[in-house]
UniProtKB/TrEMBL annotation:
UniProt-listed InterPro entries: CHASE4, HAMP_dom, MCPsignal_dom
Name of the protein described by the UniProt record: HAMP domain-containing protein
UniProt cross-references to SMART domains, sorted A to Z: HAMP, MA
Stretches assigned to the HAMP domain: 310-365
Subcellular location: Cell membrane
Transmembrane segments: 12-33, 289-308
CDD domains named among the record's database cross-references: MCP_signal (cd11386)
Domain Methyl-accepting transducer: 384-620
Taxonomic classification: Bacteria, Bacillati, Bacillota, Bacilli, Bacillales
Keyword Membrane: yes
Keyword check for Membrane: yes
């Protein structure tokens, strides 16, 4: 299996650190930076809105102040009478003089109910002879007193108009009193000092087109103000505009809102410029802290990576190299010494692997030794079997020859019987016939003796084969016992792999309990679990191979046992054949003696012809019986020869399997 650096444990741990540590830290930092920035922006916007509301409130306060002065002077019976009598001197001496007496009053206008100006101050064109804006007269007549901003020839001004009546406001009004205050830089400075921010007023009405601002360089946007003012005039109300302006290295939050006059029409824009000192400092501090946090996070990640490299990655590399050597068949390779001395999970895993490999190495050595002994035993057994096979083949040939001799003897005995029946035909033929029978009897006796000797040799060979087979059976039993011990060791290896797998699972559980700090170890535990599964699979394959060999050994043991029984049976039958041949030999010897006596005493033939005939018949019966036994022994010998041939074939197969087992074990050193 090829190694992919992108899928290495180091890469995975670095990705885990980035995902688990760096990403959350960056995410939290970005979240808090964004949240605080948004909060600061919201607070800045709220503070700017509050400042704008306060500035609008100051405009209302200025208008209320002018209204209070106006109402105070318009509720005056003498003033009402002077207007009714057109006493301009009294009015100028008592009312118009308020411009010089009352602070923050720039002009005073007195007119009758028709709008004709009786007196006025400061030369405002809108009030020179009459009140040019007839809406003022209509508003006063219809709704009463009012105050508000009004564009004039000298600029936007706060005006307050009130009906002139008596102190109790019960008598009919004889005229209109108007007090006014210009919205000048002094007023803007007062509003700015009260609110605590820069305040400016933009208008394009009257002669004072442009900005009205306090002393100092107020941050402003002329183009935006002009566009917003035109939009406000078009919509009769307009909308506000807020923006951040950088000026002289400082940030200002600028909010421009439309301002309505006394008639409800837009007369200008009120601009609030609030310096963003705190938010700028907080933003700079957040940026610095974010940079420091990022550097600290990178240093922490680097430190964690170094620790993981030294404590986990490097040991795993050494263990991986050790496992590669083991997988390549070098079972004698020593496990990493540093990892064996460790007392943690890596040390435990390394020790377990070392113990497992050492046990497997001992098993392989045992298999090699057992297979060598078994191969030697099977070679000896094969040689003995071949010898037994050759001996049985000779026995079969001898038994076939003996069967032929028995057939000839049986035929000779029949001829003797026929000759005895013709004794009456010629006494002279008795001697010749007796001589011929004597020769055949000698031949039969010789064949019987040879058959008996062959049977004796066969019995000895079968005994030797039986002894060799019993030795093979004992050696095969020992081999079977070794295979059972091998299977027990393989099962023990599987149990160790299972226990290692359970340990890896427990480590995964402990890692999951440890939370974020245990995820790196969970990856290591997962790799250990995979190694345990691979060890278990390898042990399973060894178990299957040893089980297959054990089955073949059991089959060979069974067949050898069967062959041993068949050899024992053949030995018994050969011994029976030997006894039969002994009886045949005795019978033939006895018959030969009798024939010799017949040859010596032919004169007694006639008298003993019946006895000879009976003896011939008995000899024929014995010969037939002997021929049947010889055929039976021949069939048994053929069966034994076939059994030995099968044993030889099975031993060849067993020897081949033992050789394959030795080759498989030889790959592990």
């Amino acid at each position: 299996m090829r190694f992919n650096p992108l899928s290495s444990v180091r890469t995975q741990l670095i990705l885990i650190i980035i995902v688990v540590l760096l990403a959350p830290i960056c995410g939290i930092g970005v979240y808090y930076f964004t949240t605080i920035s948004d909060r600061m922006t919201t607070l800045d916007d709220k503070a700017t809105q509050d400042a704008s509301t306060a500035a609008h409130g100051m405009l209302s306060i200025f208008a209320s102040h002018v209204m209070d002065v106006t109402v105070t002077n318009s509720r005056w019976e003498d003033f009402r009478t002077a207007i009714e009598n057109h006493d301009t001197d009294w009015i100028e001496g008592n009312v118009s003089i308020a411009v010089d007496v009352v602070p923050n009053i720039d002009f005073v206008v007195t007119a009758d109910n028709n709008g004709q100006v009786l007196t006025h101050s400061s030369g405002f064109q809108e009030f020179e002879s009459s009140i040019k804006d007839t809406g003022i007269i209509e508003y006063i007549s219809g709704k009463g007193d009012f105050t508000g901003l009004m564009p004039t020839s000298k600029g936007v001004a706060f005006i307050a108009a009130s009906k002139v009546t008596d102190e109790d406001n019960t008598k009919p009004s004889t005229g209109i009193l108007i007090f006014g205050r210009l919205l000048d830089p002094e007023a803007m400075s007062a509003i700015s000092d009260t609110v605590g921010v820069g305040v400016g007023f933009y208008s394009e009405l009257g002669t004072g087109k442009g900005w009205i601002e306090p002393a100092g360089n107020l941050p402003k946007e002329d183009q935006i103000a002009s566009s917003l003012y035109a939009q406000a005039l078009k919509d009769s109300a307009g909308s506000s505009h807020e923006n951040i302006i950088e000026q002289n290295g400082q940030s200002f939050s600028v909010l421009m809102t439309p301002v309505l006059g006394w008639s409800g029409k837009v007369v200008g824009l009120l601009s609030i410029a609030r310096e963003l000192n705190v938010s700028s400092q907080v933003s700079a501090e957040l940026s610095r802290l974010s940079l420091l946090a990022g550097v600290a996070a990178l240093m922490l990640i680097l430190l964690i990576a170094i620790i993981i490299e030294r404590r986990i990655i490097a040991p795993l590399k050494r263990i991986s190299i050790y496992m590669k050597h083991v997988a390549g068949g070098l079972l004698s390779t020593e496990a990493p010494a540093k990892e064996l001395r460790r007392k943690d999970e890596i040390g435990y895993i390394t020790g377990t692997l070392h113990t497992t490999v050492s046990s497997l190495h001992d098993i392989v050595r045992g298999i090699e030794a057992t297979s060598g002994q078994t191969a030697a035993a099977t070679s000896v057994l094969a040689g003995e079997t071949e010898t037994t096979k050759a001996g049985l083949e000779q026995i079969v040939q001898s038994m076939r020859s003996l069967s032929d001799g028995a057939e000839a003897q049986m035929q000779g005995t029949a001829s003797g019987a026929r000759a005895m029946s013709g004794i009456a035909a010629g006494i002279y033929q008795i001697h010749d016939r007796t001589y011929m029978v004597s020769q055949q009897t000698d031949a039969a006796s010789q064949h019987a003796e040879e058959g008996q000797a062959s049977i004796q040799r066969a019995v000895e060979q079968i005994g030797n084969a039986s002894h060799s087979v019993q030795q093979v059976v004992r050696q095969m039993d020992q081999l079977n016992q070794h295979s059972e011990e091998t299977m027990e060791i393989v099962e023990w290896i599987g149990k160790i792999a299972t226990q290692t797998n359970i340990l890896a699972l427990n480590a995964n559980i402990e890692a999951s309990r440890a939370g974020e700090h245990g995820k790196g170890f969970a990856v290591v535990a997962e790799e250990v679990r995979k190694l345990a599964q691979q060890s278990n699979e390898a042990a399973g394959r060894v178990y299957e191979r040893v089980s297959s060999i054990r089955e073949h050994i059991s089959m060979a043991v069974q067949r050898i046992h069967d062959g041993s029984l068949e050899v024992s049976e053949g030995s018994r039958l050969a011994q029976s054949a030997e006894l039969a041949f002994a009886r045949i030999t005795d019978s033939v010897t006895s018959m030969n003696n009798q024939l010799q006596e017949m040859s010596a005493a032919t004169e007694e033939i006639s008298a003993g012809s019946q006895e000879v005939s009976a003896m011939v018949e008995q000899t024929e019966t014995v010969s037939r019986h002997a021929a049947g036994q010889i055929k039976e022994v021949t069939g048994i010998a053929d069966s034994q020869f076939a059994s030995v041939s099968r044993i030889t074939s099975e031993m060849s197969k067993l020897n081949e399997q033992i050789r394959e087992l030795a080759e498989a074990a030889g790959r592990y050193r």
